[in-house]
Amino acid sequence: MKTVIEPYRVKMVEPIQLTTRAERERMIAAAHFNPFLLRAEDVVIDLLTDSGTSAMSSDAWAALMRGDESYAGARSWYRFRDTVRDVFGFEQVVPTHQGRAAERILFGVMVGPDSIVPNNTHFDTTRANIEYCGGQALDLECPEADDLDSPYPFKGNMDTAELERLVAEHGPARIPLIMVTVTNNSTGGQPVSMANLREVSRIARGAGIPFYLDACRFAENAYFIKRREPGFADRTAADIAREMFSLADGCTMSAKKDAFANIGGFLCTNDAELAHRERNILILTEGFPTYGGLAGRDLEAIAVGLREILDEHYLDYRLQSTRYVVEQLAAAGIPVVRPAGGHAVYLDARRFLPHVEPLQYPGQALAVELYLEAGVRGVELGSVMFGSDPHTGEEHPARLELVRLAIPRRVYTQSHMDYVIEAVGRVWERRHDVRGMRITEAPRFLRHFTAKFERL
Ligand code: F0G
Fold first, then answer.
1. What's the predicted TM-score (pTM) here?
2. In the chain, what are the domain boundaries?
3. Ligand 1 pocket, 126 CB below 6 A?
4. Whether the CB of 265 sits within 6 Å of ligand 1
């Protein structure tokens, strides 16, 4: 069959509240033109994030009832730990309440004021946690990532020539770890190839520097490798994921992405001494090492989700449904990052609104218009998110001005996506009338969450 269907059926529904344009005008103004400040029930299609927004399966809901809420040594912990060990292959598992807690603990024990941490592209919390420890977070994305139209199949790759140069210059004395984010969220949900991971691993191991994966979307990355990289077509996504992890010394993970959970995360390593130091911080800030800020029922749901995410019927549908949106938009001439990434569609606001200056935030303006047009909520990834130096307060245009429409897992159907495609098309038709924005109030760190805006 050519028709790609959602490989699940609906058992429970959550109503969507439809709104009029006049209502949305009022609501976005009350939210200071920042979609993060809207009430979720005032959003028609919520593509703010794919994080924690997944629909759990009937098996995962059933597993919640099995949750063992014992403080120490709960049955649910062992089920969770054994699943993580099996899927990821690391010996030491440290549970946390979400991904950024794993980052904070990892960098708390490994990163100091002189440290440099390279990544293909740091996610915003990763960067902020490194900077909070006094370190420098360096992005080494491959050159192809800059060309939003390049059909290169692994635009999430790290620039390994640059990594090699950096490692030769600074060595393990200043580089406490090397990270690679799979898939690369900040440059379009683009995958990283196995060849690239092998090369990073070779450089890291040659220099005696630990190599970590930011593994949030590991299953999507594994399936991209299966479909795009020669030599992997006959291997399972689970097997490919195991090989990805075997190249690394540890990982941080947000179970809110590729584990279908609404909350949760963990930190892995094979280094027992390091894990011991991590657990000491864990006890201070998250909880006892057998629950780490999670309820027993959350541990159960994650254990189920980590198996389900590697179902290739699901992964095939997931990547094809994202590609469907990208191809429809591209066919209408709308500037969108290609090829399609895994979890989201990225509109190129710089080319969508070329008359809006970077520091008048074309991405923010476009995100606001999508909400006004149809109640679709996306997020700016541009000069609002990346354009301000938290130490000096100075502003510089970001490398890219994108709007991300992240697709929650198993939540929306194809007709919802057709509605989104129509909404983007309608804004595209009246793009010449869209004006830029001005920030009226913003905090220093992670300003995009709470900044307030005015239209110019
Ligand atoms: N790393 C990556 C690549 C992420 O995308 C995220 C979260 C995190 C780490 C942090 O995980 O939210 O569980 O603390 N990304 C979400 C997003 C928020 O919308 O892309 P967390």
1. 0.96
2. 21-50+311-455, 58-308
3. yes
4. yes
